[in-house]
Amino acid sequence: MAMNLRDYFQLRCSEMLIAERDILKMNQLMTQEVQHSRLKEMFQRHADPTKQQIENLERVVDRLGGPIGPSENPVTQGMMRAHQMFMETNPPQNLIDIHNALEGDKVEHLELVSYQGLIALAQQLGEQELVQLLQENRTGEDQMRSRLESDLPSLLSELGGHGRMAA
Fold first, then answer.
1. What span, in angstroms and rounded, lies between the C-alpha atoms of 85 and 83?
2. Are 43 and 104 in contact (CB under 8 A)?
3. In whole angstroms, what is the distance from residue 151 CA to residue 134 CA?
4. Whole-angstrom distance between the N-terminal and C-terminal Cα of the chain?
5. Which CATH class is domain 5-63+91-160?
6. Can you tell me the distance from the alpha carbon of 83 to that of 69, in angstroms, rounded to the nearest whole number?
7. What pLDDT digit, counting tens, does each position of 110-131 carry?
8. CB 133: neighbour CB atoms within 10 A?
9. What is the DSSP letter of 37?
10. What is the pLDDT of residues 9-25, one digit of tens each?
């Protein structure tokens, strides 16, 4: 049987559910790694909204008939592997904090784009209840992205010493 738009939407939502679970693990790891207090607090505060986003996606996927597709998300798995490779270089703490701030921003952008596509698909399918759940997730991601991006210049200045990296 050929895949239709609803099947494709179900597949993409299943992939996003796996991605959000991976992102929660990454968030927890980066929270442990960073020492900058404001950055650590941002990561800590984002854990609960991510858990809610996972719950919302579970509801969406259940409504569509359950998860389909692969059991892991190659995008987030790749990001986790790249992070591990960076950490294996034994970077100084200020670079760990900078790296995690920039990676957090990258993840938020990835999530925003992903949710935009899922929302468009749900609208096309006339799934207004699912649109609302996905929009709630997108709004949470946009809030975290906004916080990170507004703090990035001062974080980079504090952590990088205006271009001079601490050893």
1. 5
2. yes
3. 26
4. 59
5. mainly alpha
6. 25
7. 999 999 999 999 999 999 999 9
8. 22
9. H
10. 999 999 999 999 999 99
